[in-house]
Design brief:
The chain is of the alpha/beta class. It is built from ten helices and twelve strands.
Amino acid sequence: MGYQYIFGPVPSRRLGSSLGVDIVPFKTCSMDCVYCECGATTCLTLERKEYIPVNDILKELDGFLSTRPELNYITFSGGGEPTLNSGIGRIVAHLKTNFPQYKICLLTNSTFLGDRALIEELKNIDLIVPSLDASTEEEFTAINKPPPSLKLSDIINNLLNFRKHSSALFWLELFIVPGVNDSDESIKRFVKIIKEIKPDKVQLNSLDRPGTENWVKSVSHESANLFLEAIKPHAEVEIIAKFKYANNASSEKTVSDNLEDKIMKLISRRPFTVEDILFALPLERTLIENTLASLEKNGRISTEKKDRGTFYRPKI
């Protein structure tokens, strides 16, 4: 069965083996973050509505989860802000009723976490990973490029409000953008905000896959450690490490039908390395590499070399 709204399981540096659930159209978001691995936002909006019919999403989830796959999390993520879909609460309730063995995670940019109706919709999720990437309005505009009406003060108040009214495990993600939010003054401001929010954990993230803007670079080990040491007295904190791949690839020369289409669909959501693809499509490495070479020769994909390796993405 082909899936339109779920993807993976994919390797996540934070969550292990994660089944992605994408519940808004690609690049429909409330921000246009410079580091986003999915590319620039094409529909910048603050309107919550049922962008994708919930019943269609539930049908795919039922079909996939009925096979009882091994997963660390079912994760609301993908090519936009999940909480824009006003039906997210129905999906959470359906999963908890019909597949209670799976943990549910939400990755969110925090835009709507102050909404009491949304807090109620999310009451049964296990883990929320909200973003806080700025310590001043200037940093917020430079990194997240929000609509003019959305301010950093709104984001901070949303985080405080959600933390107060939700029992979900709360991991605050701080994305470090060198040259923008990594000064000594920025770190001090972040520490002050974190002391107010009191997250269960702070996760320090930086560029892993190619971002939207070429000027965004990975953080240095020294700079990341400055954040780590400053935050450590006030909250559990970790630097997000590279994903440790299990040996999922088949030792047999398995031929997969429509492999080119499967790879294209996978990398259309975000850039992938060969190792990433092998985790999602456990086939022989040579088969994946040959298929990628064919796609590149035919002009369907492009490559970009980063610290973690060569990333593949559809050619624009």
